[in-house]
Amino acid sequence: MIDLRSDTVTKPTEEMRRAMFEAEVGDDVYGEDPTVARLEKLAAQQLGKEAALFVTSGTQGNQIAVLTHCQPGNEVLLEEDAHIFYYEGGAISAFAGVQTRTIKGDRGAISPNDLRKAIRGDDVHFPETGLICMENTHNRAGGAIVPIENMKEVYELAAEHKIPVHLDGARLFNAAAALGVSVDQLAQYTTTVQICLSKGLGAPIGSIIAGSQSFIDRAKKWRKRLGGGLRQVGVIAAPGIIALTKMADRLYEDHERAKQLAEGISNIDELNVVNRVDTNIVVVDTSSLGIAANEVLEKLHAEGVLAVPFGADTIRLTTHHHISNSDIDHVLSVFNKLFGKVIQ
Ligand code: TLP
Predict the structure, then answer these.
(1) Burial of 123 by CB count in 10 Å (0-12 exposed, 13-18 middle, 19+ buried)?
(2) Which one of 6, 87, 209, 232 has the largest count of C-beta atoms within 10 Å of its C-beta?
(3) Cβ-Cβ contacts under 8 Å for 155 (sequence gap 6 or more)
(4) What is the H or E stretch that residue 283 is in?
């Protein structure tokens, strides 16, 4: 099987497995796990923040950030296809008791003008705008990079109104690699940031949230409340250290392969690549085939290629460190075999 469902399917490298085996551990609820402490310190340094916290998943990291920043009844502004809004099971309202107000973006970027209009003024009728969320790269925009200038504008506007900005940076390292900048250059325009260790960076589990020391102190309490206070968790923090130090430099390869994949697929008349491929995600409109996306996926599955549905007529393919050049060639030959003939 060539698994292009997500970069979350990546398995730990040999080095990660060895690090897990050898990890020094302690009870992290007592703050005594030296490996977790090392990971958090390293992540805070890389992201240019005062402190960081190891959490179990991207979803947990985002939700802890919302819970820590907001009060029940606040309004949170986010792009209309943001993962926090679209894919987190409504957790933001279920747990934090906030309401969401979505703004249509352009390739995941919210225009400062639209944002300005959405920020609430001081009125007894209104909820307070408690948080602005950004996402970079933007998943549903097809791994699109939100430009650094846009992040700066959003952050400055938020600061004028004393509103914190949380960045869902599940794939921030992909954005940084594609732009040729360091992650702190992007994270500087955020109050807090969440990054995933378990996507393109290949760790088996875990995310980081980073921000000021006082934010992280409060976030730690929320993590505990949510049952995310873990004990000898150095065994899973250890591969996270390798993710941060060894895996970011190769992400450009995933981006190159995604571009090759998109180019090959777009040569098939009945298929339409709908995103400009900035990073490791390719979104394909299959509507011209006259069959539902799920059927397209079944046909691919039968040929040993896995992808995910991304809408009624769209599928998503994601490259990652288990996907080689010859896998891309093979996937394209499968696409041609299945769908290329339709046009002849
Ligand atoms: N995204 C997953 C699915 O949930 C859709 C994927 O396969 O892409 N933020 C962003 C931008 C994400 O893409 C994801 C995962 C998360 C947060 C959540 O991370 P986890 O899965 O660790 O909770």
Answers:
(1) exposed
(2) 209
(3) 165, 189, 190
(4) strand 281-285
Name the pTM for this structure.
Answer: 0.97
Share of the chain above pLDDT 70, in %: 99
Task: List every span in the chain annotated with CATH 3.90.1150.10.
Answer: 250-339
Cα-to-centroid distance, 199 and ligand 1 (Å): 8
Give the CATH fold of the 11-247 domain.
Aspartate Aminotransferase; domain 2 (3.40.640)
- What's the full length of the chain, in residues? 344
Mutate to test the pocket of ligand 1, among 7, 8, 86 (most ligand atoms within 8 A of CB): 8
Query: How far is Cα 321 from Cα 203, in angstroms, rounded to an integer?
Result: 11
**From-to residues of CATH 3.40.640.10 in the chain:** 11-247
Q: Nearest Cα to 5, choosing from 315, 275, 285? A: 315
- Which whole-number Å values give the CA distances from 71 to 58, 75, 76, 98, 191, in the listed order? 21, 9, 10, 7, 17
With bands split at pLDDT 50, 70 and 90, how would you rate the model's confidence at 341?
A: low
Interaxial angle between packed helices 234-246 and 14-22, expressed in degrees from 0 to 180 and rounded to the nearest 10:
140
Mutate to test the pocket of ligand 1, among 64, 136, 139 (most ligand atoms within 8 A of CB): 139
Query: Which pLDDT does position 342 carry in this prediction?
Result: 44
Q: What's the CATH number for 250-339? A: 3.90.1150.10
Helix (H, G, I), strand (E, B) or coil at 316: strand
Please write the tens of the pLDDT for every residue from 107-126: 999 999 999 999 999 999 99
Q: What is the mean pLDDT of residues 127-148?
A: 98
